[in-house]
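The aim of this short unit is practical: by the end, you should be able to scan a pair of folded records and say something sensible about each. We start with the first protein, listed as its amino acid sequence and then its structure tokens.
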Amino acid sequence: MIDVIIPCFNETQNIIILLDFLSTIEERSEINIIISESPESQERCRNIAKNKGVTYLEAKNKGRAAQMNEASALCLGEVLMFLHADVRPPHNFVTKIKEAIQKGNKAGFFRTDSTIKA
């Protein structure tokens, strides 16, 4: 299981687009999506998360790092992926992450050309 943590702050439209995108990947059943919204956000994504079947957290503390840390407590798996609401990973990101783990990588990232690096 890969936990995809999405911190957000006033990003309703980006969240809708990203969740629609993530619903199209083949390995959708292998990811657990957690939206972590800033307590200062004027736009609330709770209903969007509920309608899309993903976990929603209204963070207690403001700031992207705090949101990501709070959401990590809700993770189900051993692999965490932090994803900004306005970023689209490659469609095969789950496969790429699995391949990187099998090679022994402990961490990685996707560059804008959609390749994973350790």
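Turning to the second protein, read its sequence before its tokens, just as you did above.
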Amino acid sequence: MRQIIFEERLKSKEIVELEQTITEARNKSTAIVELHTDEEIVIPAKKGDALVSFVFSYMENLNKKYSGGPKPANPFLPPFETGLFITDLSPDYRLLFNKFAVVKRHVLIVTSAFEEQISPLNRKDFAQGYKVLLAVNGFCFYNSGPCSGASQPHKHLQVMSKFKEDNTGIMTLINNEARQHEGPFKWPVFEFAHLIAPLPVFDRNENYDEIGAKLEGLYLEMIKALGINTKLDSYNFIMNENWMMIVKRAREYTFENISVNSLGFLGNVSSGEILLIR
């Protein structure tokens, strides 16, 4: 039943029209810098009974993100650079392209008025996040706090189309694991502080505001269980159509002084510096 309702939502007029809006805007935009992978290293790791793949990417043109002319004081408020604005999702949210795109469809859900990136996620954030991840057939994530890998202080969720994975990819493995649980759980593969929870089954008649309220309730339950103070602690949040995950962070930089954000917990780390894998 979950899969049937999910597929019905994918084919709904609202999602189809949003997907078309994103695609048409992407085809017209000349502002996006595509971050091409110059070298990719896939490292298989045995974690208990699971074989897990971690992908390390070297992107020389990632350095473009840190060079060039003066930057706008806040790129998430108008006037926007031509080619980055997609549409107004509601009076409270805008949809923008990420100028430095890791995948072709990498978009930002941005609050129309300034809110701090350390603000907890709320019902409206979840409503828009779930809607947009359906439209790009992807996942959304939120980097919150100084140790999370967040790069902008203005509140925003990021949504990307899914990475290509085989059966050792982390998202694929968590999809399989989440089917075995009814509530929040710790995945034995991960030794750090985290929780993963399958999403509720949404009724076909529920609107996105109602869906957002259910997702907010699950998020707050997990935040409390992890002992996270959203005003003080750093954490990463990831959600696809099947589950959500929260990781409590103690530091941003890991081996070789590489910054890790939410994508690192899906097994993907990118750098503009040479990675020395030992």
